[in-house]
Design goal:
Layout: E1 16-21, E2 30-34, E3 48-49, H1 53-61, E4 66-69, E5 83-86, H2 96-101, H3 122-145, H4 152-183, H5 189-206, H6 211-223, H7 233-237, H8 244-251, H9 253-262, H10 269-277, H11 298-313, H12 324-337, H13 342-352, E6 360-363, E7 368-373, E8 383-388, E9 394-402, E10 415-419
Antiparallel strand pairs: 1-4, 1-5, 2-3, 2-4, 6-7, 6-10, 7-8, 8-9
Length: about 425
């Protein structure tokens, strides 16, 4: 059964979506989705009118055998031989497929109603994109383990599609990462590199990187730890508590990663630099070359910084994680000391907000709350879920408040400070469970 069959849900009563073979595509058809994971498509986005033959030829040359079209929004084909899905209960193909596989900005919310309980939320869609990408990266890395050379073409498809997803729903993807870190006990290598890629792209966008640089950031982030596949598992499991001789072996993952990339000469040199430099530091305290400042490329610096950030905020490799806001504060202090470059830190703060989602905060009312949603317009007044009352007792029913809206029952609330949830023995992840 194709993935589209598993996403059969709500569509308008009059819509008819058809599955056709790729060779039947013609200019003027309206493409809804493909029969493979979104990253495998050669097109930058779906849910679009096919305007020229070149787009169709790309699909025909790919491994994609079947596609979904919407004849009500473009040209149709002869009905004989095609599988047609009428909009009946349990037999509908929703345009939510486009949310999962689109890369465009105009179409991404089409057919997506986040207000209803049964709707596919933006966070859910973002999580599905993350899971799809993790599976794709795992396939690449597992292939390396068995001696396969990295396919630059497959990685190019993956990174182009991931870039499109971040452009279209980057905020939801970042929030999904932060929420997932609150819930998870540990994070595998594949989740780590995908999260580093998403956050690095977001920072690169904030720094006004051009398209080529963003592609290098995305690909470099996905590959920065590929050398881990050649490191013994017992060392990887103890990577934060290694004896000297094991630490020497672990640090060789940089060298081993470069050797893996050497088997694919078409991978850009900028990506090689990311793998080579992602543990270098501005003050020369990094490894393996102890490079300083301008000797490290800005693309490498962005990935290296986000690699540190993800290691701080997530249980990646068994490390003890920090609350997101405290991790940002630590890296900000590192920037002031000259260990990391200031630009990526400032860009990350713009991406996450002053009070990132998942922050545990005290309010001027005496209550304590967890931040549910940042506010780009009024950064100091996010939406929070109040979980402790003014007397310090846990509320049976948490109260959700948008701090940017004045005149609440207990007066205007403001955030006073960020708290450490560990001191209060609070599992913040449970407050994000649906």
């Amino acid at each position: 059964m194709s993935k589209e069959s598993n996403i059969l849900s709500r569509s308008s009563p009059t819509s008819t979506i058809k599955r056709i073979e790729t060779h039947q595509l013609t200019v003027g058809m309206f493409l809804i989705g493909v029969d493979e994971s979104w990253w495998k498509s050669p097109l930058f986005r779906h849910n679009r009118l096919l305007h020229n033959q070149e787009e169709i030829d790309k699909l025909k040359r790919s491994d994609i055998k079947e596609v979904l079209i919407d004849p009500s929004r473009g040209l149709d084909v002869n009905d004989s031989g095609e599988e047609c899905f009428e909009s009946k209960a349990g037999q509908e193909v929703s345009s939510e497929i486009a949310v999962i596989r689109t890369g465009g900005t105009d179409e991404v919310t089409e057919g997506l109603d986040c207000s209803g309980e049964n709707s596919l939320s933006a966070h859910h869609a973002a999580q599905m994109v993350r899971n799809d990408t993790i599976q794709a990266v795992e396939a690449v890395f597992e292939g390396v383990k068995t001696g396969e050379a990295i396919s630059h073409q497959k990685l190019k498809f993956m990174t182009d599609a991931l870039l499109g997803q971040v452009f279209s729903q980057g905020e939801a993807m970042v929030e999904s990462i932060l929420i997932q870190n609150l819930r998870a006990f540990d994070k595998a290598l594949y989740g780590h590199v995908v999260d580093v890629a998403v956050l690095s792209i977001m920072v690169g966008i904030q720094l006004n990187f051009d398209e080529e640089s963003l592609q290098h950031v995305a690909l470099g982030a996905l590959l920065h730890d590929v050398g881990h596949v050649r490191i013994p598992r017992n060392i990887l499991r103890r990577r934060h508590n290694l004896f000297d001789e094991d630490e020497v072996v672990f640090k060789r993952h940089v060298e081993l990663g470069l050797a893996i990339l050497d088997c694919c000469p078409s991978i850009p040199s900028a990506v090689h630099r990311v793998v080579a430099e992602h543990h270098e530091r501005q003050d020369g305290s990094g490894y393996p070359q102890r490079l300083k400042a301008d000797d490290i490329s800005l693309v490498s610096d962005v990935v290296a910084f986000i690699d540190q950030f993800d290691a701080l905020i997530s249980p990646w490799g068994g490390s003890t994680c920090l609350p997101t806001a405290m991790a940002v504060r630590k890296l900000y202090q590192d920037a002031k000391r000259g260990t990391v470059r200031a630009m990526p830190v400032e860009a990350l703060i713009r991406c996450l907000g002053v009070y990132p989602i998942g922050s545990f905060v005290s309010l001027s009312s005496g209550e304590r709350a967890v931040v549910l949603k940042s506010n780009g317009t009024v950064p100091l007044k996010p939406t929070v879920k109040i979980i402790f009352d003014q007397q310090g007792k846990i509320l049976d029913i948490p109260l959700i408040e948008d701090l940017s809206i004045a005149g609440s029952s207990s007066g205007d609330r403001e955030i006073l400070t960020i708290l450490d949830p560990w001191k209060y023995k609070i599992d913040l992840g449970k407050y994000f469970l649906k």
